[in-house]
Write a structure and sequence with these properties.
By secondary structure, the protein is an alpha+beta fold. It is built from two helices and four strands. Helix 1 (63-72) packs antiparallel against helix 2. The chain is globular and about 35 Å long. The model has no long low-confidence stretch (mean pLDDT 80).
């Protein structure tokens, strides 16, 4: 595993990607770790340029929701469940 020694020793450069539920030239929606914890991610669409931006929205997933999403194999379910809990 590569590490980022500039910031801190043994800091992973890459995180685990669990699902990619939408892909247009690059991943647009799914579940991945951020700072070692699972999050849903969704790329923002830029209406002004009529194209995908390079910005993503991240929502931390509680362990029970993450488990449910993995059982269903997609983050869309996790997002719906998250909204119901919120």
């Amino acid at each position: 595993m590569k590490t980022n020694t500039e910031n801190a020793p043994c800091t992973p450069l890459y995180e685990t990607v669990y699902t990619i539920d939408d892909y247009h030239d690059s991943p647009r929606r799914g579940i991945a770790d951020y700072l070692g914890h699972p999050h849903t991610f969704q790329c923002l669409f830029d209406e002004a340029t009529d194209d995908w931006s390079n910005q993503y929205v991240l929502i931390a997933l509680p362990p029970a929701i993450f488990k449910l999403a993995m059982e269903h194999g997609r983050s869309g379910c996790a997002g719906e469940e998250l909204l119901m809990l919120g």
